[in-house]
Structure formats: C-alpha cells, structure tokens
User: Fold these one by one.
Assistant:
Number 1:
Amino acid sequence: MSLVARSGPLTEQQERWWLRLYWREKGDIDNAWSKQWDLPAGISVEAATAALTVLVERHEVLRTAFGLGPDNLPYQLVFEAEGFRLPLTVAELGTLAEYGDEGGIHPLVGGSMYTRPLWSVRLFVEDDEVRVLSLVFEHIVLDGSGVRNLREQFLALCAGTGRPLRITHPLDRAAKERRIRRTPESRARYSPDPRALAPRLLVPATVKEETPDPRFLMSAVRYEGLLPLLDRVGRAHGVSRAMVLMHAVGWLISRYSGIPRVMVVNAIGLRLPSDDSIDLVAKALEIMVDLDEDRTLAESLTAVSAGALRAYTEELRLGVRDQDSRLRLEKERGIGSVRGLYFNYQGLSEPDTPETDGSPVPEVRVTRTDEWRSGEEPWSYATWIYVDDTTVAVDFDVDVVMLPAETVHRMSELLPEFVRLVAEQPDAPLAAARALLPPDFARSTGARLVRGTWVHLDTVAEVIAGCPGVLAAEVSEEDEEIVARVSLDGPSCLFDVHEYVLSRLHLEGDLIAPHRYRLAEGTASRATGPGLPDLAAGADWLPGDGTPVLGPTTEPERELVAALRETHGFGTVNLALTYAEAGGRAVLAPAVVETLRRRGLEGLQLPHFATAHTLRAIARALVRRTPGHAL
C-alpha cells in the first residue's frame, strides 16, 4: 500500500484539467491522451518494468492524483514511491490492433472523483521481448518535448545508463502562482484577453442546410521533402519549425475566413529549459496571430514567432486567466465560448545538425488519407503536427460544417507552397501569397462580422422564433448592433426571450444574443419582469436594463438554491443571474452537480455552467432520477 507523501490544493492549471476529467465522465467528448512507442530489440519485460519503476520513483507527477475534499474543492495527492503499485499490464503483440480498435487506448475512467494516478501503461510482447509500449495519460503531459524526454529516460534506464534528474512538482509552484497572480482587472491593464479580440469562431458555418453525417474529418497528410524547406526558413529567420508551420496554417485559415487575425490555441507544456523532468498539465496557450499584409513574408513570420514568445512570457509573469472572468466576458459579448485554431506540434523544434551545403531543396511529395467520424466536438479546427527525421505529418481534424473537406484538401496542398514562397521570396509582401490561392478558396456563407464576431441573422431569428410565446421574429443589424423585433403572445416577456437565447448559445455556432430587443407594432405591451413597468410597442429593451428579480418558485429552483448554499456557502435570491454572476466558481460546479445528484436530481452538463444559462434555466434542466417521480 502506498502512503501519501503530501497533499495540497490544485494549481490553476490542474483545476482546468480536473474539470475536463469530470465533465468527460458526464458525457462530454474528451478522450484520454495516448502515446505508442516502437521499441528497439533486446528489452525484456523485466528491464522495461524496472525502468518504469525508476521513472515512477524519480517523477512525483507519475504518483499524483486528484481527490475531492470535504469543502467540495479538489486537491492533489502525491504518493510515496515505496509501495506504489505500477499501473502496468502485459499483452501479446498480436493484440495491439484489437487494443486500439476497441478503444483500449482510452481505458481510464473515474479520474476526477477517485483517488488514483491518472495514467497507465501496457507492454506488448513478442518472443519474450517488449516490442511496443503504450502509455495513456489523463493529466500528465501533452507537449512533444516532454513525451520525448520520458521516452529517452525510459530507453536509457533499460540500457542501464540512466541518471537521476532534477524534478519539479506543481505543489512546489503553488506559492509562486500566488505571488504572480493578479486580479482580472489589473491583468487586463497589462495583457488584454485574446478572447476579447477574437471572434467566437474563426470561420462561420458554410451552409444553412442539414448537418452532414459523418461531419468530422481527420485528413492525415504526410509531406516527404518538406523538412529541409522548413529548416532553411527556420535558420534564415531564427524561428522554430513549429512557428513556420503555425504561420502557414494561420495564414490559410485567415485567407479562408477573410479575417487578418487568428487566435491560435497552442499546446505548450509547463516545462522550462533547465527542467529535465516530466511536468504536470499541458496548457492551451492563446496566441493572437496578426497577419498584416503590409509586412513582408519574413516580417510576418518573425512577428508571429515574437507574438508566441510574448504570450508565453505574459502567462508566466501574470498567471493563468481566471475562468470565471471569461464567462462574464463571453456573456457581455452575447456569445458562447470562443473557439480558436488548436495547434499541437510534436517533434524537434530545430534540426540536430546545421545545414552544410547549398543543395537545392527537394520537391515535396504529398500523400493523404481521410477518416470520417461522428459524434465529435462541433466547430473544431485542430492541426496535429508530428515531425521525425524525414517526414512532416499534419493531421487536419475539423468539423466540415466549418471547414469543408475540399477546403481542407486545398489547404494541405497549399501549405508546402506557402512555406516554399517564404523560403524563396522572403522580402515579398505577404499579400503576394494570395496568388497561390484558387479563385473559389474563400468561404461562402450568409454570416457577417458584427463587432468582430460572426453572426448569422437567420440563425438568431430562428432561435427567437422557437421560444414559447413568440409569434414572429425579425433580426437586423443597426449601427454594429443586433436588433431583434419580436411579436409576443401569452405570458412571455422579452426577458424570457433573451433567457431562451442565452440558453442556446452553446448549440449554434453563429448565434449571438441580440444587443437590444424591440416589441413589434401592434403587440400588446409586456412587462419585462415582476414589478417592472410595461414596455410600449416599438420601444427598445436592453438586456440587463430592468432585469427582473426572480426568486425560486418551483421545486427544482429551490433544490438548486439549496445546493448552492451547501457547496458555496450562500444562496441566491435572483435566478435571473448566470452561475458566474451569482458568485459561482467554475471549479465548484462539479460539487453542485454531485450535491443535486444526492438529492435525486440530474441533467446538468458543462454548458449549464460554462455558458450564459441563467440559474432559472439551469433549474429547468433538472430531472428526477427516480422513474415516475414528477418534479
């Protein structure tokens, strides 16, 4: 039995991952992360097991688990190395394909609420030697350098040449986090939130037709001969391979959407150059990629690289952005969560050896395979990039409602051409790269940019028209504001309509909440809430102006208020507020769900807390678990 060496609260980065694990178990789509290594000959099961045992002893992160305390807050536990049970299984090599096909690479469940390390390893054996090692992580490491570090240590230990390395642990950094942490207001003065500058979606939905099934495309593209081209650009301008590729992918997205600014969510681990350990929790670093066409290609590339370094430095200096302040920001903008371009690079950042000759760069050979899937996360655009000694592999993982398959294929063909242009004509203006694009490359959609965010007026009108009590709805743009003209019938009021729109922000990719509502002529006046004056036909109502005070009246509403009192230490008298506005902390949302579950109520998911649902709308989503028991 392994004893606990120490424990403490989660760091801000760990909180994010704990929440991801929790909501995945409640139905959110978020798999474990896995890595498979082909091993050299001569490694026995005993040698591999011994090497893994040393890694566990060396790295506290491999002995760290999350738990839930009596105060409803998660905490981390670090187990003693002595007596620690290695999460290892052994199987025949012939079962490897079956292991992957049946989802064996994602076997971990229960990670958010149960105390155990969130990783596992399986050795695949042939002729008494380990041929393949499969690792599955939940919350340990995602960055390529950290994984390579772990593999190198494992192989060195198997060969008997391993040496002790420095280690760090998030508990060691908790005090530093407290020192550098600033309030959201003070941080905003130093570093504007990229989400305030980016549209909700990089590109809007392309068509307003029936959603295709399957709608999620993984286009795996392999580039032979691209690596020398990347390295020539990198050496000439002092940037990494990852930055050359991020610049290229960002430019392609920018030209498709027509927006010269792309928010890239870059998977960067919490590892510093002096740290040889495997560190805990990869973070999604948000980088604003500004593609100013007045710059040269070289200036544009170096500006993107400088922007990435600046974003990383600011995050180290100022700490992680507060999730709850982001919920408030997104509600003020009338949108759901912002979806940037997810960019994950794995491989050497620069070549091991310098270029020694001036030989011409070879032609790039491109091969592509497509895989279609259903049931993934909507509105996604992710690029997964892997670099080895000879090949660059780019997986375009997209929702074809946002990026059609033919557009993805064109991007895969254009990527090496853009890199070649940067290599051969670095002093040409960025605008010159447009000559690479086919005439029909740009998006085709009915959405428009309003205050920098894509919105489809028909989508807004359709959602409003679906609200009970709405007879008709027209939506227009007036002076950079979305105005909804509504005809009402029955007891509904404009606040009810607005609340209905807020509750659907996470369901529609090009929906934003109107900035103002207007009663249609001929519509009987409707109060905007109890105790508030009626609104004359033709008059405007602004959300937040005259918001009613709605106390709990139904059983689900009373139960929700009781759960908030139990988990947060306070109740609320106004169910017109969102969870964040009422003072609810994101990290305590799972405690609310579990408290209501104990009371026999379920039905809440991440969007109820992470988007602009009011507490009244959250309560309406609750259902009794016991069959036949009506609320």
Note: Residues 64 and 499 are 42 Å apart (CA to CA).
Number 2:
Amino acid sequence: MRNPELMLAGIGLVAMGAQWLAWRLRVPAILFLLLAGIAVGPLAGWLDPDALFGELLFPLVSLSVAVILFEGSLTLEFHQTRGLERVVRRLVTGGTLIAWAVAAVAVHVFLDFPWDLAVLFGAITAVTGPTVIAPLLKTVRPVAPVAHALRWEGILIDPIGALLAVVAYDLMVALRMTHEWSHALWAFGATLATGLCVGAAAGWLLGTLLRRGWVPDSLLNLSVLALVFAAFALSNAAQHESGLLAVTIMGIWLANRPGVPVRDILEFKETLSQILLSALFILLAARVAPGQIFGLGWPALAVLAVMLWVGRPLKVLFSTWGSGLNWRERGLLAWIAPRGIVAAAVSALFALRLEKMDVPHADRLLPMTFLLIIGTVIWQSLTARPMARLLKAAEPDRVGFLIAGANPVARAIGQALHEQGVPVRLCDSDWYSLSLARMMGLPTYHGSPVSEHAQRNLDTTGLGRLLALGVRDDVNQLITARARDEFGKRKVFSLPRSQDAGQAEKHLLDAAYRGRTLFAPELGYWKLSALLAAGARVKATRLSDSFDFAQYLAARPDHPVIPLFALNPKGYALPFTLDETLQPGAGWTIIGLHEDEPNGVNGANGGGGGVAGVASANGANGANGTDGANGANGANDAKDGGGAEGPVGARAPGMPGADGS
C-alpha cells in the first residue's frame, strides 16, 4: 500500500487543481472533480479509496453527506416561498414529481432497474443543486426571469430533493427487509418519525444555545459541527437510516428560527462543504471504473436523452403554464438542468448500502448517476451560453456598476457613466436622493445593497462591479466587505476614507475590509462634494492621435482635471485607482472631473471636449453648445472667452443654463 499521508495530500492537490481549472474555464467544478477521480483512481491506479480508508470509508461518506445536506438545508427559509412566483413554486413541487416519474420510468425501461430502485434513482436525480447552477449561471448569464427561477429552484430543491431521496430509500429498504407492506410502512414511519423528532430536537437545542449566547463566537463552528455529527449518529442509532433526514430537518429548523446567526454558520459550512465536496467526489469517482460507465451502453444514453429532452421540458411546461415568461425564456429554462452535489453524494452513499443488501442492479446506480452528472454538466456547459444567445435570452455582459449611494457625487458619476452607455444602478435608502436620480433617468433601487431584501430582489443584470460612493466611510466599508464575495475583490471599489489622508500605516483600515481605492488619495466624498458644489463638472473627452492622454492631463494647468474613468473603444469602463496605472490611447474616452471655469471656456468643441450631458449653472459647459447664463451661444462663448478649439468630446444633449433659452 502506498504512503497514506502522500495519498491524502495528493487528494488535496488534485482537488485544488480541479477547482482552479473550473474557475478559469468558468464551468462547474464537479465535472473536473469527477474526471480527476476517475483519472487518479481506476485509470492511473494511484488511488484506491477502499484500501486507503478500509471500513472508515462508509462512515466518512455518511458524515460528509450529512454536513453537505445540513448546509444545503440551512438555505431553505419558509418565508422565501411566500414571495416566490408561481413558476418557482411549481418547479419545486409538481414539476419535481414529473421529473422524478420520467427518470424512474426511463431507467426501468432502458436499464431494467427494478421499480423500487428506479423510484430511488428518480428521486436522487430530480435535484438541480445550487453548487452546479450558480457557476453555470455566471457563465451563461441568462435574463433576469430565467436566472431568478433557476437560482431559487436550485436553492429550494436541494434539501427538498435530499429529503425525497432519503424517504424513497427508507421505504425501499423497509419493503425489502420485511417483504410486507404493513411492516414496511411501520419501519418507514418509524424512520420518518425518528428523523423528524431528532432533527427538530437538535435544531431547537442548537438554536436555543445560540440565541441565548451560551456558545462563544470562538466555539460556534466547532459546536455546530459536533452537534450535527451527534444528531446524525444518535438518529441512526435509534432508527437505522434516519440520520440524513435528521440533519436535514435540523438545518431547516435553524434556518427558520428567529435570532439564530445562520449566516455565521453558513460561512463556515460553505467552506467545509467545499472541502468535503472536493474530496468526496474524487474518492467516489475513484471507485467507478470507466468500464462501468461505458458498460451501461446505449440504454444509459437513452435515459440521459429522455431526462434532458422529455423530463425537463415537461417539468418546465407544467411549471410555466399561464406565467408571464415568453417562449424564449421557457426554452432556456427547459435547457438548463445540471445535476450535482446531492445526486452524486447520496447515490454513492445509497449504492454502497444497497450493494451490501444484494439489490439487483444496485452496482449500476452510481455509474448511471455519474454518467448523468457528467453528461448534463458537459452538455450544458458547452451549449447553454450559445443557446441563450440564440434565443436572445442572455443578459448583457456584466460591464456595468452597482453604485452604493445616490448623493450628488454618486449621481454625477452615475449620470456620466450612463450617458456613455455603461449600465449603472444606484442604491440608497434616502428616498429624496433616489428620487433626484430617477428624475435624471438613472436606474435605482430603494434600499441598502447589503439588506436581506436586496439579496433577493436587487436586479444586477449587466452589473459586474461595485462603486461604494456613500457619504459615510463606515457604511462604504461594510458594503465593500460584503460585496467582495459576490463581485470579486478586484471588482469592488470605494472612495478614500476622509480620515486616511496623511495617516500612518497603523491607523489605516485593513485592505481586507475595503475595496480598491478610487481616483486619488485625498479625493474622498467630502472633497468631491465640495468641488461639485463649487461648480466642478464631470465631463467626457475622447482621445485621438493628435490629442493623447498626456495632453488631456496638461490641457489646462490652471484648472487641473482629475481623471475618474477610462472607457476603451469597446465601451468598457475602467476606474482610475491607486493600485493600478492606466494608459489610455487613441479612441479611448476619459471621464474626468473638471473644476469650474470662466464663461465660454468649454463651449462646443472648446477646451478639450464637451460635457457628458451635464450643464453648469452658467450653461457654458453644455455638451452641444447649449445657451449660457445670458442666452449666449456656447460656441460664441468659447470664441469670445478665448477658448481654443480642441478635440470634440462625447456628445449628449446639454441642459440650458440658469437664464438660457
């Protein structure tokens, strides 16, 4: 036997490589984890899970599945279903039953599974989990209605599907052990009651401990994990095979218990689940020889085809009947249904047990499930994005900005970006500031971007980056810290903190709690606000071969410009930040802050470009030479004021001055 330490370390390295490759290629990691397990297991002969873990393999898989199901069930909150559209409710109820029935019939007809095993297979594979849907949505980027339905279907159906699989398995085992319906139903009822009681009791106990503060923060993760293991083991000891149901009920109880810090639990459990998921898939795939999958032959491909092109469309047809979704959105919704975490983990766990019971074709359960997972992930990773574009049901590229704040600074920057065709959405809890943004034609969201309501309802279509432009530094800090996970740390930006200028390093905020710093060290909110109040304006200027970036910066030394954003020829906006130096070239557009200038300096074609649709009080800065304070023509003002003609800036309809016509 090879060195166990080297093998365990190797599993970690292989898992890391698979996860990294999936991240780079923007496909679900489960695909590479399964392929890696097959490669290092039966193909290379390097990993033999049974020889490595021996009798511990079964308990290891069981406890890992328990943690994964517990983490999934923590996301199932009952109040979410009350606000969901009818489509989502049908997807996770009647639609799931349709997919279940189609899968069971298909595997019974084509692979000759006995009916009880076929029903179990249908329950296991009726699940589309968020661990597969979430990365696929990032790649496909469907329109909001489709993304909303798929995301919530995955979140809600994950624990529901696990519960259905556990119930189907318990009933199957009870029937095979007793051979009498009365005894089978009694055993099934005992299993169901034990799982419900132990899970509810464990959830109540843990929820009470956490709500009353009897568990310190330093012991939170250890205590939760220990109680999950204890609930699983005690339930199984009281009634065979009831442990998975117990931890699922435990998670649902905690998720719906007021005052329980579920978010803190989830942060740790998501990390732990990712570790267990990576190792588990490699170990399970290493037990499946390619010959087992290929040995299923064309009937297995027929099962896959029926589930993809009969089961899923029927489910979506039922779920979307009478809804507001158009046929394009329904088609894309029917196209995307990858299987993932619950299907792989639960099928592996049940296959191990059923093989020991000598259930006919139990040895085919795991290979068929893995074939379904690999087939759906590969097929939909390759075709979902092109299909979304073909159906015109893909959202625009995520090149826009979610702007936290609707104050004068946020409105000025948001308007300048919006008029250059960059998608923006301003978020603020101040209704008056938000109403001013709406009057300017800017998309808005009334509320905090870090609220629970925003997590469910904030439309981020086309928005892939965040600008924290709020008045309060501490609020900006909170928003950027929360947004780093969603957008990525390189795509979260914030203004310099007002108190940071000139501070020693020991007084500066840790970079882990802030976004990338925008613009200039001293250019915090209050400085920007003061400049705008004094008459400075945000303007857009296009660079050319005869007017480069250096000339742009040096065009008016008496009124220096502060560059804010650089838009490349494709319209992608890059913020100027302290940690990166941009070198815009010809064809780029610079959005900068220009201090107030005398009348006529920036009329049409004057002084290096027009205003990006923002007029100053005297009207001299109108983008298209809008009339000034005294009704004079902008172009004439430029001539009278001595402003030499420069490169024409980005054009937008200007606004008349205070007394202009």
Note: Residues 400 and 463 are 4 Å apart (CA to CA).
